[in-house]
Amino acid sequence: MMEYGLIGEKLGHSFSKIIHEKLADYTYELCPLAKDELDAFMKAKQFKAINVTIPYKQDVIPYCDVLDDSAKRIGVVNTIVNRGGKLFGYNTDFAGFLYNLNAHDITLKDKKVMICGSGGTCKTVTAVAEYMGAKEILVVSRSKKENTVTYEECIRHKDVDVIVNASPKGMYPNNGESPLDLSNFPNCKAVVDVIYNPLKTRLLQQAEQLGLRAENGLSMLAEQARCAAELFLQRPIDPARTAIITDTLQKRMRSLI
User: Fold this and answer.
1) 57 tagged catalytic
2) What is the pTM of this model?
3) For position 257, what pLDDT does the model report?
4) Which residues of the chain are under the pLDDT cut of 50?
5) Which DSSP string corresponds to 3-31?
6) Given 17, 57, 86, 251, which residue is catalytic?
């Protein structure tokens, strides 16, 4: 039985084990699952609590007996706690992304926000943008879907203020990839990439070259992990730990580079 850990399809990029084991005194395992393994894993319930990442944040919802208000509203679960065989689903990504924006003084109020990617993370980013009072939210998808535009169509929106990459495009080991060319958006002032490995994706590198605010997703990861650990242990964890862990990891990664 796994006590605490992370499930997802590919986890070679993940820092979650390092973060959780800095937050609390428990062993945290990375558990990669193929799509045909998810059903058996969830039905077995052989865990105390888990985090969920790409591409299962929506797929796990039917296995949850109870959803908190945030998970229910957003339609995305990234944290599951097993209480006596009953699975409780939560969304701590909302708090994580909101923390990331506030920590870097990026506001979405009255802004036109463009979100790359239409999966589970996009739903969370959209919820945060609505909460902060964004003027308009534009979702970009690889294929045409309801309430989205394609990457070919999005370049018509020259007035975008903030761009958020909520897709895995550019994530390790595909470091050289980018979801779009920022030079097509002359009004853009800030770019946020939920990816944290590498610290500077190709998208963020271009943002810096163009003189834009450029922030990665490491703070989001650390804060959502802190919130998840509070749910795991049913006790508060000092919010100051998020900034300390984020700073420690950034320094370690930069020294490795």
Assistant:
1) yes
2) 0.94
3) 52
4) none
5) EEEEEES--TT--HHHHHHHHSSS-EEEE
6) 57
